[in-house]
Design goal:
The protein is α+β, with helices and mostly antiparallel strands. About 25% of the residues lie in helices and about 35% in strands.
């Protein structure tokens, strides 16, 4: 593989992420509405505190371009050791397996470096690329949640997909 590298989001990533998000609006909406300006980026960066949320930026090794963003959110410790996984790719970087590799790298870190036991991804049923990505990484569909999250001003149905650390196998 070795087509991507993932790093924790940094202040220096702001301008490039804003540009990539703006160029990817047609790819993202209505599934995700990431920040579109530096104020929004700074709010996102402040949420990525390393305790409750972690943000990762994936870049292709060939040119260093932003491939996508992967987030581990609402980390709960104690007996739960669980979090929500969210991800989105960028326009012009799709169809090459780069996000699959990047999300796989972040999942591996979640289970090894961050000591999590379970990751859950909530995906809108109409988002077939995201569903296929989760399925290809070993997530199993656990359920369906009507009007689960308010995204883009509308309550949207989601499928619940999850993977446990003992079920994780890094992609080949």
């Amino acid at each position: 593989m070795a087509g991507v590298v993932v790093q924790r989001v940094r202040h220096e990533d702001g301008p490039e992420l804003v540009t990539a998000n703006l160029a990817s609006i047609n790819l993202h909406e209505p599934f995700v509405y990431p920040f579109h300006d530096l104020v929004g980026f700074l709010a996102y960066l402040s949420r990525c505190d390393g305790e409750r949320s972690l943000g990762y930026v994936a870049r292709d090794l060939a040119g260093g371009h932003v491939v996508g963003v992967i987030n581990i959110n609402e980390i709960v410790r104690g007996v739960f050791q669980s979090a929500y996984l969210g991800y989105y790719g960028m326009a012009g970087m799709t169809g090459r397996g780069l996000m699959r590799e990047a999300v796989g790298l972040v999942i591996a870190r979640a289970f090894s470096e961050h000591g999590l036991h379970r990751l859950e991804a909530n995906i809108q049923p109409e988002n077939e690329p995201s569903r296929a990505l989760a399925r290809s990484l070993g997530f199993r569909q656990e359920g369906y949640s009507p009007r689960y999250l308010k995204i883009g001003g509308a309550w949207r149905d989601h499928e619940r997909w999850a993977i446990l650390s003992e079920d994780w196998q890094a992609p080949e």
